[in-house]
């Protein structure tokens, strides 16, 4: 997935970044842009410094996304673990060679599958269902 950002006089035209970002990185980036000093609880990492060409900041080793089928994990080096929780199925893809996700590599790369399942489970706080998106529960904790 690609993101296009236009910010005249701040971002050089034609600048390309290979940084791995997720939607949850947008809030910390806006916090850096605006100079907000409050406290925010997020897993996101700001990519502001990368945007304006001021050097590298912390980067994700992987990002995790929720979906109606189950969580997915994408690594910085291009591996994607996709889950179908109702079927107890996990599929593994190497996106640089298979961006359409047509060739499941889980059987040929069992060790990578196992490694990424552990990371995904940790990211889901020990329960893959925490990465299952639903309209039935609150997505934001409200006090």
Summarize this, please?
The protein has 143 residues and is of the alpha+beta class.
Would you tell me the overall average pLDDT? 89
Shape: globular
Order of strands, main sheet, comes to 1-2-3-4
For the CA atoms, what is the radius of gyration? 17 Å
Low-confidence stretches: none
Straight-line N-to-C gap: 34 Å
- Can you summarize the main beta sheet? 4 strands, antiparallel
Outline the structure in words.
- The protein contains three helices and four strands; from the N terminus they run ααββββα.
- The chain is an alpha+beta fold and 143 residues long.
- The model has no long low-confidence stretch (mean pLDDT 89).
- The chain has helices at residues 26-34, 48-51, 110-123, and strands at residues 62-65, 72-75, 79-84, 89-94.
- The relative contact order is 0.13.
- A four-stranded antiparallel β-sheet has the order 1-2-3-4, with helices on one face.
Write the layout of secondary structure elements.
Elements: H1 26-34, H2 48-51, E1 62-65, E2 72-75, E3 79-84, E4 89-94, H3 110-123
Antiparallel strand pairs: 1-2, 2-3, 3-4
What descriptors fit this protein?
single chain; 143 residues; alpha+beta; four-stranded antiparallel sheet; globular
């Amino acid at each position: 997935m690609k993101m296009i950002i236009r910010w005249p006089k701040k971002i050089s035209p034609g600048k390309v970044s290979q940084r791995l970002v997720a939607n949850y990185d947008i809030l910390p980036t806006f916090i850096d842009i605006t100079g907000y000093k409050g406290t925010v609880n997020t897993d996101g990492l700001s990519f502001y410094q990368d945007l304006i060409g001021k050097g590298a900041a912390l980067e994700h080793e992987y990002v995790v996304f929720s979906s109606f089928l189950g969580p997915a994990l994408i690594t910085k080096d291009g591996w994607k673990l996709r889950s179908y929780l109702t079927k107890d199925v996990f599929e593994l893809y190497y996106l640089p060679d298979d961006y359409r996700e047509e060739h499941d590599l889980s059987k040929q790369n069992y060790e990578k599958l196992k490694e990424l399942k552990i990371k995904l489970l940790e990211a889901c706080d020990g329960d893959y269902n925490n990465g299952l998106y639903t309209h039935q529960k609150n997505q934001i904790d409200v006090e």
